[in-house]
Design goal:
This protein has about 400 residues and is α+β, with helices and mostly antiparallel strands. The chain folds into 2 domains: about 160 residues, no CATH class; about 220 residues, no CATH class. It contains 9 helices and 18 strands. It has a 6-stranded mixed beta sheet. A 4-stranded antiparallel beta sheet has the order 1-10-9-3. The protein has a 4-stranded antiparallel beta sheet with strand order 2-8-5-4. Helix 4 runs antiparallel to helix 5 and helix 5 crosses helix 8. The radius of gyration is 25 Å and the shape is globular. The structure holds zinc ion. Zinc ion binds next to loops.
């Protein structure tokens, strides 16, 4: 399976400068892609094709040809993704338009050489048929397996993200069970297996960290607004702002990794072969004011902030590859109304409090209730009573 490993590295001072330049040049290529695409669209009314883009931005930059190609591909990919999201009704998603100052450079398989002593040579451009000397880096940790791609990224400092094939096959899995997952802001993951076992992994810690971050952020913003742009104090505050942001990002990733890991362990212990996840796609993207349906109540700013910072996308990413490694299949399913509908009498109501209670007498833990309905939707195509006696709720917290 393909995995990615992020690592620090050592290099000469001169080469470090050149690496910084790489990401600056990559940004120029990206910006040029934007420009060419815009002009092309204005002139022809059509979208620029990858080939045409490659013709226009070839051999003009001090980067390896495959590195340039990778940027063009990422541009086209971003455009396609935006198009897909818009087609789904997320009209607030814009096509790529933002000019960048730095952009991650990638070296594909012909773009680097790995020496037996662990030194990696990152290849650069050809000038008049002669190649400029490569950049030599030594990774702090060289992953075992066949390296496919190397990306130069910024995370407090320059780092390398190495994609490699670890040679491992997904675990063989001959189990039978199905589990439904409801991802939520407070409970992180709530899951119900068809053997009646259920799991709740809370993300309260994530939320409290977020809140703290937002507060600190607001303070810094306020101070920043009083400074003159570009002044020394302004720069200092800007740095502090960035640091706060990156720190919470790291903490968040850590918690989400633990959450997904715990879930996979639980799924394996419960003989799960298939996991069904409620697709929450619309939730985050609709946090901006509803344009289409002005009658719909606007969410308060507070709720909006909560939702747009809900990192289910990252959690889903982690779950996807961890489940795959465990040989568990993952399916997405439309989760609309799964939290509101009573599976017994089909009445809909908003849940308040920890338990979902219906007039008909049905009651269930609110998070398990959501997972239960997702499982029913998957099994029968509709929300209805499953008839699975829920025997045990396991509570976990991601922080150990
Ligand atoms: Zn009911």
């Amino acid at each position: 399976m393909i995995r990615t490993h992020k690592t620090t590295f050592r290099t000469y001072k001169k080469d470090l400068e050149r690496l910084f330049d790489c990401n600056r040049i990559s940004a120029i290529v990206w910006n040029d892609c934007l420009k060419h695409a815009r002009t092309h669209h204005q002139q022809t009314g059509r979208w620029i094709h990858l080939n045409e883009l490659q013709q226009l931005t070839r051999k003009q930059y001090h980067l390896h040809s495959q590195s340039i190609q990778s940027i063009q591909e990422r541009y086209v990919q971003a455009r396609t993704n935006a198009w897909k999201a818009r087609k789904k009704g997320c009209t607030s998603i814009r096509y790529p338009y933002k000019e960048k100052k730095h952009y991650p450079t990638r070296w594909k398989k012909d773009g680097f050489t790995i020496h037996p002593n662990g030194v990696i040579e990152l290849k650069m451009c050809l000038i008049n048929g002669k190649r400029t000397p490569p950049i030599r880096v030594k990774l702090a940790h060289l992953p075992e397996g066949q390296i496919k791609e190397i990306e130069l990224i910024w995370d407090r400092k320059l780092m390398l993200a190495v994609s490699y094939e670890d040679g491992r096959q997904p675990k063989e899995n001959n189990r039978q069970g199905t589990a439904a997952v409801d991802m939520g802001e407070i409970h992180g993951i709530a899951s119900l297996a068809d053997n009646g076992h259920s799991l709740i992994i809370t993300s309260r810690k994530l939320r409290s960290q977020k809140r703290l971050r937002n507060k600190k952020y607001a303070e810094l913003q306020k101070k920043l607004s009083r400074c003159q742009k570009g002044s020394r104090r302004w720069k200092k505050l800007r740095r502090a702002l960035g640091k706060t942001q990156q720190k919470t990002k790291r903490q968040q990733r850590d918690i989400l990794h633990k959450t997904s890991f715990q879930f996979v362990q639980w799924a394996e212990a419960n003989q799960i072969k298939k996991v069904v996840i409620g697709d929450v796609e619309g939730v985050q993207r609709n946090t901006k004011a509803h344009k289409k349906n002005p009658k719909k109540k606007h969410r308060s700013r507070n709720v909006n902030q909560k939702l747009s910072q809900w990192p289910f996308g990252i959690l889903l990413l982690y779950l996807t590859y961890k489940l795959k490694a465990a040989g568990i299949d993952l399916t997405m399913i439309d989760e609309s109304y799964t939290t509101q509908t009573c599976p017994v009498c089909d009445r809909k109501k908003k849940v308040s409090g920890r338990t979902y209670r219906c007039h008909c007498g049905y009651s269930e833990h609110r998070d398990i209730h959501g997972a239960k309905n997702i499982l029913a939707k998957h099994k029968y195509g509709e929300i209805k009573e499953l008839g699975i006696p829920i025997s045990k709720i396991t509570y976990l917290r991601p922080a150990s």
